[in-house]
Specification:
Structural class of chain A: mainly alpha
Largest sheet of chain A: none
Helix content of chain A: 55-70%
Distance between the termini of chain A: 18 Å
CATH class of chain A: Mainly Alpha
Order of helices and strands of chain A: HHHHH
Shape of chain A: globular
CATH architecture of chain A: Orthogonal Bundle
Oligomer: homodimer
Radius of gyration of chain A: 11 Å
Largest interface: A-B, 23 and 23 residues
Strand content of chain A: under 5%
CATH superfamily of chain A: Cytochrome c-like domain
Number of helices of chain A: 5
Number of strands of chain A: 0
């Protein structure tokens, strides 16, 4: 399982679209607060691999490319534990 | 905007994995309760078009293929208004 504190330290760029509290401020962007951690990791990996296209993949693929597997686990831990 | 009551009538198959209350019972599946409606529509369209691969797309693509645009709007209205 990831380290939520380490995830928080990486999450500033996420907050621009998904909200500092994990509730997206932009229509069409998903809320992340309380989301299943394993799902968040799966989504980030699919963006990084290029399997996930469509939607906001033009935004997310470059972001995910900059994340290691450990970063993904940490971000997932951080957002999944938000209320 | 979609019709949440019409969405509920189509949502039985969704509940098998995403939970009758929109909280997934299976690790790795996203919660849908309270999710942004426009995001849900975007995700379903990307599964239907085949743009979204990876993750559980082998499960979701056939499901999304059976949904009209109106069905997607209705399902999104239903899940987004759940607490």
């Amino acid at each position: 399982a990831g380290d939520a504190a380490a995830g928080k330290a990486k999450a500033a760029v996420c907050a621009a679209c998904h909200g500092a509290n994990g509730i997206a401020m932009i229509p069409g962007y998903p809320n992340l607060a309380g989301q299943n951690a394993q799902y968040i990791v799966s989504a980030l990996k699919a963006y990084k691999s290029g399997e996930r296209k469509g939607g906001q993949s033009m935004v997310m693929a470059p972001q995910a490319t900059m994340l290691s597997d450990a970063d993904m686990e940490n971000l997932a831990a951080y957002f999944s534990q938000m209320k």
